[in-house]
Amino acid sequence: MRLLLARPLVCSFSLVLSLFLALSVFVPQSASQESISLDDAVRQLAERVATIPNLHGPVRLQFLQDSNFSSDTGKDWQETFRKEIERRHLSVNDDPAAGLLRVGLAETPTQLVLSASARVAEKDEVRLITFPRANFRAANLPVAPVRLEKQLVYQTPDLILDASPLWNGAQSGMVLLTDHDAALSILRLDATGAVQQSISLTPAGALITRDPHGELTLRSDDASVLLPGKICEFTWPTPAEAKCRSAKTTWRGPTVLTPSCDAGGWKLLADGSDWTTPDLLQAVPDNSSQKGSAAILSDFPGPILCINGEQNSSSALVVTRNLRTGNYEVYKITLACGN
Rounded to whole angstroms, how far apart are CA atoms 149 and 336? Predict the structure, then answer.
């Protein structure tokens, strides 16, 4: 199990936060709660910058943008901002002596943030446009050919380190790697969620760590559990013979799903870095030729702890901790064709 850190708070957003602390007076302004395109937000930001008291040209522009987000939006918005500023009679050039205007585009798990900052008369002036990610409408981008479906399939008060669908074949259900009272166990569940087999890994020497991680790999006759610094292997007919040995730990990479209508694939990403806040699952195009396609988003009741799609090309299991109930939950995520 690996906490996915695909969407860290980027440098430009950190800059905005540091500017918050530097300002003595600041009133945040948010964009309309209706659907908004990036160009719309850029125009609003340019209009607010143009009204900064005593800000005169020429100004030298410095753009800050998350590299991951850049692959989805491109950099056309930067030229749009430049044109909108000049249209409002604020000249722009690259002269090092010109006043510096920093413009940033950043994302958090729930919001997009456009920021502009300048030093005017010994005072930092900052203007922001923030709007929920769910309201973001990427202008002129292709419509995603798939939709994301989410189904709660299991919940328990015990910590779930990983969840995997059973191997493709006659069997159905899933397998969980759980921690109950500091003991690691494997639970094999049928399609209804009933426990069919419980295997303790404690006799084999598998101990829970202070920062628990674990990943399941299933096969028809046997399975393995990857833990920090070791691997435990067993067979389903003789689980008491499970053995653990030292092994190099290499956690699985991001899950890529390939629905029948899009062989290019969609990568599932989540933050997972903050266990105290709800998380947002993103499905983004994995094929480089699709990078302009808008991401598909789905919110969860807590942090996403792991994503496992090794047994199926169009669906995955996502583990989260529900912050309201305290339970650990497993959701089946499917990329279905059509809008």
Answer: 7
d(CA 120, CA 126): 10
Name the least confident of 33-37, 78-82, 186-190, 252-256: 33-37
Residues 126 and 152 in one domain: no
Closest-CA residue to 39 (of 71, 70, 80, 84): 80
- pTM to 2 decimal places: 0.59
Q: Which of 137, 156, 183 is the last residue of a domain?
A: 137
What are 107-136's pLDDT values in tens digits?
665 677 888 999 888 888 888 888 776 666
| pLDDT at residue 137 tops 60 | no
* Distances from the Cα of 232 to the Cα of 24, 137, 286, 326, angstroms: 56, 47, 32, 29
Q: Is residue 2 part of a domain?
A: no
| Whether 233 contacts 224, CB under 8 Å | yes
CA 32 to chain CA centroid, Å, is 24
d(CA 63, CA 55): 18
- Parent domain of 192: 142-339
Cα-based torsion angle of the residue sequence 44, 269, 143, 140 in order, rounded to the nearest 10 degrees: 30
The tokens for 252 are 């699985």
Which of the 8 DSSP states describes residue 221? S
CA separation for the pair 214, 231 (Å, rounded): 9
Mean pLDDT of the 247-276 span: 84
The C-alpha atoms of residue 94 and residue 288 are separated, in whole angstroms, by 32
| Residues 151 and 277 occupy one common structural domain | yes
Asked if residue 214 lies in contact with residue 183, where contact means CB atoms within 8 angstroms, the answer is no
